[in-house]
Amino acid sequence: MGIFHGILDPHFADWPHLYFYVAAAWLAPFRLIGVVQDPASGYLWVRILDALLGSITVLLVFEFGRRAYGWLAGFFGASALAVAFLQVRDSHFATLDVPLTLACTATLYIAYRTIHSRGLRPVLLNGVALGVAASLKYNGALVFSGIAAAQALRARAARSRWTPLLARLALIAAVGVATLVVTSPFLVLDPGMTQHGIGYIFQHLGTATAPAIGWVQLSLALWFGIDPVLVLLGAVGVAYAAWRRQPADWIILTFLLVYIVLIGAGRSVFFRYADPLIPLLLLLGGRALAALVERTARPQTRRLALASAFVLIGVAPIAHDVRYDTLIQQTDTRTLAFDWLEQHVPTGGRATVPYMAGPAHDQAMIDSGEHSHAATDPYVASFLDSRLETRYSIRELTRQDLQLTSLESFRSEGIDYIVVGYEIPGTGCRTDSPLERALQAHAPAVARFTPTNSCPESVFDPIDTYYVPLAGYSGWVRPGPYIRIYRLSG
């Protein structure tokens, strides 16, 4: 949206900038006809774009499988991806993970299709695809491992020496870097910003904010994110690929290994970092399942075998998808809390509200730049996660505030209401902080907004502030964090 206001430099390099420009190009015609007019409508239409890209990834997996392993393998792989929960969930969001997943899958497909191609065209295709993947998120550059595997297979088939292979890889890498520069030019034009952004990434991955190292996080993400049946199918597919060792197997397995080893070494790995792995794991799983059906099913039992395969692929993931989609249609607790505050906080009053787990922010929070990712333009800086409140002022409730045992600092600032919400998903069902215990000793909460009817044991990504469980929906009635509102008197 900032691009429409002439702000081409994001002043931000925690990830590259290509998708900013892609999203702006996508929104431009909708903005001209008046469909996109504000941040909310902009977010909605970028979410629609992500959903389309997620659907294209399903079609690409079918095409990749059809070309590499046969029609049935592609069909099984695409069917599994179409219902895999993380792929379905993250296609709801206006984030980079699904576009990156498509780019990685497409790059490996191009690497496979151009193994035996001659001339400059395959070098350019591989290099541009590499650059696009890296320009979406830096970890997209890891697809170079799959490209390298494809080029090594090409050199082996041609019985050429290592020197031409290394020269070809260097040329592909150069084209990739040039594509990255062209599609994210301010990474070069603002080197200080780029250095800060890349430094932050390494600091983020090296700082232990997740409860376990990345290999464990990725394993949990897959186990709960695509359901055990598809994880086991993917594992069988990997084993079968390691046994068959066809060209596509080498390309896919090399990428999977490099990605898991390098990303898994991080100490702050989000569950959605597993997204680029999912299409490839399910493609290999679909290929193994197709081989099983083709080798064991007799002509008269083929339909039964196909039906059984689809039941295996679809039943548990579809049930997971439906439970999730049913839940997120309900009103979020933050929306309910926002409406309550609108009715009860007087004009000119003052409230303390958490940022991520809270329902509102005010202009002072925007002006502080605390949550604006270094945006220098006021319009861009105003795109915060919660809703803007203009009737009353807000003081942010921080994690440090939750450790306070006295309410005097809030009284001295003229706070009327304290909104308690816990940033870490899955926490807050019970009183979890010294501050809230002090508030309860003062007076009970005047309003409570709970997403569950009990305190269920659900699975969340603990470092991703998304307040819908990955698994374990029993007892859940709506999305959102647990929110309790206390009135501060005296």
Describe the structure.
With 490 residues, the protein is mostly helical. Helices cover 58% and strands 6% of the residues. The chain contains 20 helices and 7 strands. The strands form 2 sheets. Strands 4-1-5-7-6 form a 5-stranded mixed sheet, with helices on both faces. A two-stranded parallel ribbon has the order 2-3. α2 (39-68) runs parallel beside α5, α3 (71-83) runs parallel beside α15 (302-328) and α5 packs antiparallel against α6 (121-136). The longest helix has 30 residues, at 39-68. The protein is globular.
Short key terms for the protein model shown above:
five-stranded mixed β-sheet; 20 helices; 7 strands; mainly alpha; 490 residues
Helix content: 55-70%
Average per-residue pLDDT, rounded, comes to: 92
Give the strand tally: 7
Give the strand order of the largest sheet, numbering strands 1, 2, ... along the chain. Answer: 4-1-5-7-6
Q: In sequence order, what are the helices and strands, one letter per element?
A: HHHHHHHHHHHHHHHHEEHHEEHEHEE
**Total DSSP helices:** 20
Q: Describe the global form.
A: globular
Radius of gyration: 25 Å
- Class by alpha and beta content: mainly alpha
Point out poorly predicted stretches.
none
Largest sheet: 5 strands, mixed
